[in-house]
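User: Just a sanity check before I run the rest of the batch. Below are the structure tokens for the first item. I only need the designed sequence back.
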């Protein structure tokens, strides 16, 4: 007895046309989802009146500035759009990884107020640094597998 799905019956055209998602696609989805959620909560929590530090509020464990929330939301939206194709997910992880690492470094190097855009909050710097480094590693692993032919590059 054979399964109908192996012959293409019962499978939508979209499912049949979609390439299997690799490391980059899965990590891009996770990273984008987390950054989108944190960005939206940061924007909602911090308000949007005047663009100064009085409008930054604590979100969970870290202070969140409205512009930080805007940047995280934008990165999350771009990541969701890129996560469907492996090569686009690799590009997203590379660019966003470098951006998030630079953002974390700016938070550590600049003498920022805890409520500033480049906050020195350990939690936020840790989130940006971890997402950036793991994103770069996932992009590298995905590129390595694609060059060996271990995964389909969509």
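Assistant: Here's the designed sequence for the first item:
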């Amino acid at each position: 007895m054979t399964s109908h799905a192996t012959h293409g019956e019962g499978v939508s055209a979209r499912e049949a046309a979609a390439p299997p998602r690799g490391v980059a696609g899965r990590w891009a989805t996770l990273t984008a989802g987390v950054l989108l959620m944190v960005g939206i909560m940061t924007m909602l929590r911090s308000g949007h009146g005047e663009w100064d530090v009085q409008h930054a509020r604590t979100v969970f464990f870290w202070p969140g500035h409205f512009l930080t929330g805007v940047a995280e939301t934008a990165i999350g939206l771009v990541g969701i759009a890129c996560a469907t194709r492996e090569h686009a997910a690799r590009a997203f992880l590379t660019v966003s990884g470098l951006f998030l690492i630079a953002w974390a470094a700016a938070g550590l190097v600049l003498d920022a107020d805890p409520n500033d855009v480049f906050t020195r909050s350990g939690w936020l710097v840790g989130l940006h640094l971890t997402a950036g480094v793991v994103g770069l590693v996932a992009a590298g692993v995905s590129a390595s597998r694609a060059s060996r032919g271990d995964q389909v590059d969509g």
